[in-house]
Amino acid sequence: MDSDFTDKLAKKRQKVDELFDFEGMKIGRGTYGHVYRAKRRAGDDPKEYALKLIEGTGISMSACREIALLRELKHPNVITLQKVYLSHSDRKVWLLFDYAEHDLWHIIKFHRAIKGGKKPQVQVPKSMVKSLLYQILDGIHYLHANWVLHRDLKPANILVMGEGAERGRIKIADMGFARLFNAPLKPLAELDPVVVTFWYRAPELLLGAKHYTKAIDIWAIGCIFAELLTFEPIFHCRQEDMEASTPYHHDQLDRIFGVMGYPHGN
What we know:
Layout (H helix, E strand, L loop, with lengths): L2 H10 L3 H4 E2 L4 E4 L3 E8 L7 E7 L6 H12 L8 E7 L4 E7 L3 E2 H12 L10 H20 L2 E2 L8 E3 L9 E3 L6 E2 L7 H4 L11 H4 L8 H16 L19 H11 L6
Antiparallel strand pairs: 1-3, 2-3, 3-4, 4-6, 5-6, 7-9, 8-11, 9-10
Helix pairs in contact: 5-8
Main location: nucleus
Pfam family, one: Pkinase
Subcellular location: Nucleus
């Protein structure tokens, strides 16, 4: 490629550090990246954004998959990808999203503290829980209708918009583990042996099923619903397996069977 053309292109390319203020504003971590709260440096745009820095250097297969899916998905209850920024100097990839002030994990944690008597009592209207659940189901129905499995549904990945036109709107986020499931070249379990965060992992995943369906997302939503009602993980198990290379976990299955009963044939 002509070096002059490359230089001109590099000068025209917008750089994240020049466009946004986000230093020291880290707000979380996704499946494959770190998330920062950001504001535009120039102009009169008062809006806040979320900038996700993809982990590693260059564009990995997981980053390509996430970007490709997000560019196609458009639904009020699924996070919208605004723009992708490529930084050639340090080979970084940045994704720009609308900023959500809350997520269900922080909301549940707040009410758990209240339940524990550490803060004044605040009643959560049943209509609010119903609205949250309806929006999560509406978003996941859209994903499933378009042959997308999320595979990492948990309270931390369910965002809730704050002040503004979309106040109270649910946004399903973090598509790092999402996959198309209409015609996989291999069983999904062979491509990604461990999916779905521990307490929200369906029994078929814990038992090492090679083939699974959208039921694993619905199971996770059921776990989230129970947590919204009680402010405690329904299948809480003390031992974590963040680094485990196998989805099986004896204690987690025991906890599920303890709550739901043992499976039996019809």
